[in-house]
Amino acid sequence: MDVPLITFEGIDGCGKSTQIEMLKKYFESQNVRYSIFREPGGSDIGEKIRAILLDKSNAKMDSKTEFLLFAASRAQLVHEKIMPQLKTGEFVLLDRYIDSSVAYQGFGRGLGKKIITVINEFATEMLYPDLTFYLEIDEETFAKRKGFEKDRMESEDIDFIKRVIEGYNYLSDSKRFVKIDARADQRLIFQDVVREIKNKFNL
Predict the structure, then answer these.
(1) Do the annotations mark residue 11 as ligand-binding?
(2) Which of 97, 103, 140, 198 would you label with 31, given CA atoms 20 to 30 Å apart?
(3) What pLDDT shows up at residue 1?
């Protein structure tokens, strides 16, 4: 039986949160049980870690510190929230998960894929998503969409964002990835999301 764990990935401004909100309403209309979590965060401990990670006053944070904080938040979320929900048969929708660390810390920060993967697998007890939507936008679209006040991660320069996009494109070769052009209308994107979920889980 497929594990109903669905993740949404992409650089900031790609529309992940919008698609998750639309999917939430769709699941409710179809009487599908679900839970939604975000990374970093999703648990009391995780939300405290999130505040540290996104605080712009922590600009001197070392890249290794950053990744290990993400991994700590992730470990708590999997243990406290995700695993128990999956055991009930509920769909779990995640706004970011393990692939964000490969893209942002592995490629963006230059820590490399190997160490990120090893620690991710330790933190999550080898729990991989069954389906991952990669909402792809380029750096120009990112710049246009992120005109408001940015947190620490969103304040990185375009060269960093380019490396993150490179990381996501590397990951998107995986069979569990569905790459979607997120420059399109949100309603059209959502049609693609629902179609993939219906096909994967026989809804």
Answers:
(1) yes
(2) 97
(3) 41
pLDDT tens digit string along 60-101?
Answer: 999 999 999 999 999 999 999 999 999 999 999 999 999 999
Number of domains forming the structure of the chain: 1
Q: Which residue has the tokens 């380029």?
A: 138
Residue 4 phi, psi dihedral angles, 5° rounding? -80, 60
**Pick from 61, 66, 16: nearest CA to 40:** 66
What is the per-residue pLDDT across 7-32, written as a single tens digit (0 to 9) for each? 999 999 999 999 999 999 999 999 99
**169: number of Cβ within 10 Å:** 14
Q: What is the CATH number of the domain that holds 76?
A: 3.40.50.300
Measured in whole angstroms, how far is the alpha carbon of residue 14 from the centre of its chain?
Answer: 11
155 is in an annotated binding site: no
For residue 46, say whether it is annotated as part of any ligand binding site.
no
User: Any known ligand binding at 197?
Assistant: no
Single-letter amino acid code for the residue at 64:
K
Is 146 marked as binding a ligand? no
Residue ranges of alpha helices (H) inside 83-185 are 83-87, 98-101, 113-124, 139-145, 158-171
Q: Is 188 exposed, middle or buried (0-12, 13-18, 19+ CB in 10 A)?
A: exposed
Find the domain containing 9 and state its range. Answer: 5-201
Tell whether residue 15 is among the known ligand binding residues: yes
| Residue 16 labelled as part of a binding site | yes
